[in-house]
Design the sequence.
């Protein structure tokens, strides 16, 4: 993970793959108290597996569920994890129906005017820039090639939800596009010293080893804009 003036960002990238197709559920919540708009993937009866990684201020949670079938062996889980860029032993069986992710308990990152930091992990890359001249934050997100390789249809993006100084702001428009799309948008107005939390939620069909399912990807960031 890149480190620099904004490497302390509380960025959350959460991916859930191979979840059984099902109806929509209640929104998830970030650790900063901002709710992810758009429905989470719910599970039919099946076995669920998760992997959570925290590197500095970055937390990544991967979850998938198979409907029926035998429980995956340690070898199976490590094979899937390797395909998705996860460390050996990261994926573990877990109970429950939903995944809740949150930012680590860290200070908000400083997003300096006209700087272009980015954060990458196995799930994708998030970039953000405070354009103080126009009072905006421009953001972009690209799903990683490894996650793209298991997506079998369009990605349904809910559109970024965001909060400025704790107040909810109008969300960005969502998209229904291919997995290789470079998601992007603008948050405005954002001015010097504003505390901004923003996050997105995506769902898509997947297939791994011939097993079809539904996946989801959630990312979130917590920054303070500075000139």
Sequence:
């Amino acid at each position: 993970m890149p480190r620099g003036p904004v490497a302390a960002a509380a960025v959350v990238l959460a991916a859930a793959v191979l979840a059984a197709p099902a109806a929509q559920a209640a929104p998830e919540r970030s650790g900063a108290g901002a709710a992810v708009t758009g429905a989470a993937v719910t599970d039919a009866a099946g076995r669920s597996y998760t992997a959570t990684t925290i590197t500095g201020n970055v937390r990544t949670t991967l979850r998938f569920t198979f409907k029926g079938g035998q429980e995956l062996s340690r070898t199976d889980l490590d094979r899937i994890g390797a395909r998705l860029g996860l460390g050996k032993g990261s994926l573990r069986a877990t109970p429950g129906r939903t995944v809740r992710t949150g930012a680590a308990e860290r200070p908000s990152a400083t997003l300096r005017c006209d700087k272009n930091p980015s954060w990458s992990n196995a799930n994708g890359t998030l970039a953000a820039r405070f354009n103080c001249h126009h009072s905006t934050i421009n953001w972009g997100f690209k799903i990683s090639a490894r996650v793209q390789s298991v997506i079998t249809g369009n990605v349904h993006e809910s559109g970024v939800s965001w909060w400025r100084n704790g107040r909810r702001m109008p969300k960005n428009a969502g998209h229904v596009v291919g997995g290789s799309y470079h998601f992007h948008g603008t948050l405005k107005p954002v001015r010097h010293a504003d505390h901004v939390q923003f996050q997105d939620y995506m769902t898509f069909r997947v297939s791994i080893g011939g097993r079809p399912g539904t996946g989801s990807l959630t990312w979130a960031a917590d920054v303070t804009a500075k000139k």
Remarks:
- Residues 78 and 88 are 6 Å apart (CA to CA).
- The first strand starts at residue 11 and ends at 19.
- The first helix runs from residue 74 to 83.
- The radius of gyration is 17 Å.
